[in-house]
Amino acid sequence: MKNNQAQTAKVILARKPDSETAAKIEAFAKGKGCSSVEYTIDGKIIGGIIVYIGDTVYDGSVKSRLEEMKRDISD
Amino acid sequence: MFMNFYEAGLAANIGDLVEWESLVCHLIALIILTVGLYLLLFKPVKRMIKERQDKIKKIEKENSDLNAEVRQMKESSSVLLSDAKKQAAVIHENAVKSANQKADEIVADARRQAKNIVERAETELEEERRNLQSDIEQQITDVSMAVARKILARDISAEDDKKLIEESLAQWSKE
Question: Which of B24, B28, B133, B151 has a CA-to-CA distance to B169 between 20 and 30 Å?
């Protein structure tokens, strides 16, 4: 927990978040023990959100869901 | 008449002409000549003829022996020829058997190889078909995903995006 507090949550979004969404993201990061949030806008993820906190990755992007679907179809 | 005179004259003449001593001498000479000829000429000629006959007999015997030998050789050669023919027939039969066996082996081997080739080709064809099917499925998936990505990128509104983000955050917060 002490480690996470010194960390920054790196957040990737497809478009710039509005203040309400940003507040929810920051609350989530804080809940995971992060002191700050760093945003990156990348249209390649199509939609949703990816959060990097330390070695943990929270991937809720449309891109990853599509990849998962693709894997399911291929299998 | 004339003949009687003539015959009477002739007999008188012969009597005048032939002297008995001379006749005897001639006879003795004739005998001596005959004996001489017999001793000097007839005997050697007879001996020579006998020798010739012996020689001919000897030659005939040799000829007969040779003929017998030739007959024997002919019989022997006939037997040899017959044996050789039998051996040749056996060799020919064996060669034919061997050739047939070899031919059968070659045909069987060719059939085996052909079967293997066909099986290998079928296996390769099946594998190729599977690969192709897999490639096509992959391509269809890729194209579908690309299309879906483009459609989603175009159609996902800010509101939808916000909802997605909030759902994700809510789910992660529960974990």
Answer: B151
For A28, which of B137, B160, B173 is closest by C-beta distance? B173
Residues of chain B with C-beta less than 8 angstroms from the C-beta of A47? 152-153, 156, 160-161, 164
Residue corresponding to tokens 């010194």: A6
Max intra-chain CA distance, chain A: 42
The pLDDT, as a whole number, for residue B38 is 87
Kindly state the DSSP code that residue A47 receives in the 8-state scheme.
S
**Residues near A38 by beta carbon (within 8 Å), at least 6 away in sequence:** A8, A9, A10, A11
Q: Which residues of A are less than 8 Å from B148 in CB distance?
A: 66
> What confidence category does residue B13 fall into, taking pLDDT thresholds of 50, 70 and 90?
low
d(CA B159, CA A21): 11
Q: Do B149 and A24 touch (CB under 8 A)?
A: no
User: Is B172 close to A17, i.e. CB distance below 8 A?
Assistant: no
B72: tokens are: 């024997």
| pTM of the entire predicted model | 0.51
Characterize the bridge pairing of strands A56-61 and A36-41: unpaired
What's residue B7's pLDDT?
A: 61
Percent pLDDT > 90 in chain A is 71
